[in-house]
Amino acid sequence: MLFTSYGFIGFLIIVFAIYYLLPGRFQWQFLLLASYVFYFIADPRYLIFIAITSATTFLAAKKISDKKKSFDVWFKEHKKEYEKEERKSLKAKEHAAEKKIFLACLLFNLGILAVTKYTNFTIANINSLLSTFGRADGISFVQLIIPMGISFYTFQSMGYLIDVFNGKHEAQDNLFKFALFVSFFPQLVQGPISRYSDLSATLYEEHRFDWRTVSFGLERILWGFFKKLVIADRILVAVKAIIEDTNTYNGFYAFAGAMFYALELYADFTGGIDITIGVAETMGIKVTENFIRPYFSKNIKEYWNRWHITMGTWFTDYIFYPISASQFMMKLSKKSRAKLGNNLGKRVPVYLSSFIVWFTTGIWHGASWNFIVWGLGNFVVIMISQELEPFYRWFHSKVHVAGTFGWRLFQVVRTTLIMSSLRMFDCYRDVPLTFKMFGSIFSKSSLSQLKIDAFIEMGLTECDYLVVFIGMLVLVAVSLVQRTGSVRGKIATLKAPVRFVIWYGLFMVTLIFGAYGIGYSASQFIYNQF
Amino acid sequence: MYKKIIIVILIIAICLSGLGLATKLLEPKYMSGILEGAMIQEYYDDPTDHNVVFIGDCELYENISPVYLWENFGINSYIRGSAQQLIWQSYYLAEETIKTEKPDIIVFNVLSMKYNEPQNEAYNRMTLDGMKWSKSKVDSINASMTDDEKFIEYLFPILRYHSRWSDLNSDDFKYLFHRDKVSFNGYYMRVDVKAAEDVPEGRPLPDYQFGDNSYYYLEKLTQLCKENDVELILVKAPTLYPYWYDEWDEQISEFAKENNLTYINFLEAQDEIGIDWSTDTYDGGLHLNLAGAEKLSQYFGTILSEEYNVPDRRDEKALNEYWTTVINRYNDEIARQEKNLELYGSVHEPEN
After folding, report:
1. Number of domains in chain A
2. Do residues A489 and A397 both lie within one domain?
């Protein structure tokens, strides 16, 4: 059920009405039912997968948590009976037992993700390898279901399992409460990847109807619809035209395509997250923010702290840190320092950990090489910018531009251009073609190539471009205002007629200028695919 | 407390008015270019109490002139026609008509039997948007929707027509709250001539059998008329395109016989009607022009008067007054189209 479909809006109205009519103690149970209905509507078979992940993760985490608790109680009572070394050994034994459960559950669930999502990608690679050795008869592809949002809910569940294993919090005692944490319908299809400690704080609480909370939620939903329907789905037409006809649209148009895609992806993904957060907010549930004005970032590192934040922190906390702190990395660090010197040697484990994180980030986005290369592209850019740090310091000691508006603007534009260039891998979904199109920006762009008619032939009229442009200005203006606090909070302080004009105006603008209905193909949110 | 209630009511009123106004502005007006979209709605403005109601596609609304039937036979008739009107749409229009008034005769053109499934959203809209909300309209929408269509977009037309914001023109503002009449009791007039140069041969079809759905609605229409004591006459207009196959004709003849209905294939009576394909069509044989329509009206009017005893009501004062206004518009339109033909070579004024 697409967030922007009439079906979803109808579903939401029904859920919302029942949610607030029910006694508070039944609200979370109802949300679980609604989430499973939502998933059932998408495809009844998906339910098996999410139920298995929920059940196995719940049982494993519970077992680990119970073991931890009983061990802690026993250990407190008996620790005086043992010597220091013996106590250490007992702890290690307990840890190893927990680790077995932990790894079994982790590998089982990541295995489901790997099999459903990456089997055919693996077969395709084996086949192409075989063909290079002259073997034409490759392995046949298999028909597999890829459950909606599997990457999101698997990562969310595994994050919970890791936290329980690391003793960050206790396991949830109620299977159904945990099932709701995994399947909470607004965030099921495109995240954010919530942490149990964050989401559970409000997910199971009783919520009474509060006009301010509900209206804030509705405003956020409306803002999401505006971004998705007015901007993303409109510019999508031009993006598609550019991607599909690379013979016509290369050179400057490939650059324009990358810029259009940057706008589309931002409006699409943040719009979807706005709807997610808004829906949860109308029911009094707080979902973690996933973006902080990412296009205002001054470098790639900052960008990744502001874009898809929950995914970034997931990879940092659950992959980067564990790998960096692993025994293997410690040994590698020692060896590389010994061989390459302290300065260079200490970077080897960091770079290797980063490489693994970005490789995983890439493949998490999709089972194809373009995503892997995109991930590694990010790695390369971040590593280069780190290596250039001394040069930057030298530059700023000579040229005193740091902190000026012009320099900050340059940094923002530079970051946007780099990120948009990397995203061309996502656009064209073909590595050699992406390089070719990127190259054409420099080799084929010329003033003579640039024709206004070519933009009209992409399927959008002058009016459409005007709507997108004005929409983009609104996005920028809102982002600028947002720097000093919640825009909705600020609007809420205005006089009632002004507030009415703003929100009713936004509603009418979205209703009229939105790209939806007959004549427009309803487009999935881009991140639904991941 | 009262103040709060008033404010809430006021806000709701403003919101609904805004939505209503936007809907009115954005919905197509069909006042120039494609006039057919405005025809279904016109029925509700006119007096009912018709003796004969024609229901069907362009083969009726371009080929029969109710004005001629009134002037020459005193028959009070109306054409509930729309472009590519599908048989289930005709059925629900008939159902609605019978609920509104009780005609003596319903005339149904059988060409639409060839369509067994929903066809085209734009044509659906031209038939369905103009209907007043009723169970008949709801059922007609449900029967007509193509895969892309959603019922809610009929309920709230702004969801369908919102994208017209970039196509708005002066007509959209001029006809925001009213419409001009575009038909003459459902008749769409054309006075120009484009001769039919050859008589087409139908291309062989893989299957000539009318579909189950088409038959289902034809049977429903028959049943509806019988239950309400309305005479149902099946007709096939005398136009050359789209081709009317003998196999189709046999099926309709068979159905009419089984159900004790009259079926008139005007194609077989072309000579009797006196149709001259070099002068009586404006688009090479697809539709009749005014001259052709009046010839067919003369022929059919005689049948309706003599065989079905449809009364001559020219002595009814109120009806006479109504028809005088229609006749005046009719004559004005003839004059306008003839003048345009003379000036521009087309019945339409040149676009600015």
Report:
1. 3
2. no
Domain span at residue A333?
A: 297-429
CB-based contact, B166 to chain A, within 8 Å: yes
CA distance B260 to B262: 7
ipTM above threshold 0.85: yes
Q: How confident is the model at residue B352 (pLDDT cuts 50, 70, 90)?
A: low
Is there a domain that residue A198 lies in? yes
Q: Is residue A509 part of a domain?
A: yes
Please state the pTM of the whole predicted model. Answer: 0.89
Residues on chain B touching A461 (C-beta within 8 angstroms): 166
Task: CATH number for B36-128+178-344: choose from 3.40.50.12780, 3.40.50.10710, 1.10.10.10, 3.40.50.1110.
Answer: 3.40.50.1110
Contacts of A395 (CB under 8 A, 6+ apart): none
How many angstroms from the chain centroid is the CA of residue B15?
35
Decide if pLDDT at A141 tops 90: no
For all residues of chain A together, what is the average pLDDT?
Answer: 91
CB count, 10 Å around CB of A460?
A: 21
Q: How many C-beta neighbours within 10 Å does residue A311 have?
A: 22
Residue A460 Cα, gap to closest chain B Cα (Å):
11
> Using CA atoms, how far apart are residues A505 and A495, in angstroms rounded to an integer?
15
- Measured distance CA(B145)–CA(A328) in Å, rounded: 64
Give the separation between CA B44 and CA B132, rounded to whole angstroms. 8
Contact B263, B235 (CB under 8 A): yes
What is the chain B residue with the closest CA to A462?
B166
* Closest residue in B to A230 (Cα–Cα): B163
Residue A511 with chain B: CB contacts under 8 Å: 19, 22, 158-159, 162
Which domain-ending residue is among A182, A206, A230?
A206
- Given a cut of 70, whether residue B81 has pLDDT beyond it is yes
With beta carbons under 8 A apart, name residues in chain A contacting B26.
512
Is 60 exceeded by the pLDDT of residue A523?
no
- From A370, A398, A429, the end of a domain falls on A429
Q: Cβ contacts of residue B341 below 8 Å, gap of 6+?
A: B191, B192, B347
CA pair distance B251, B235, nearest whole angstrom: 13
Q: Which of A230, A498, A511 to mutate to test the interface with B (most CBs of B within 10 A)?
A: A511
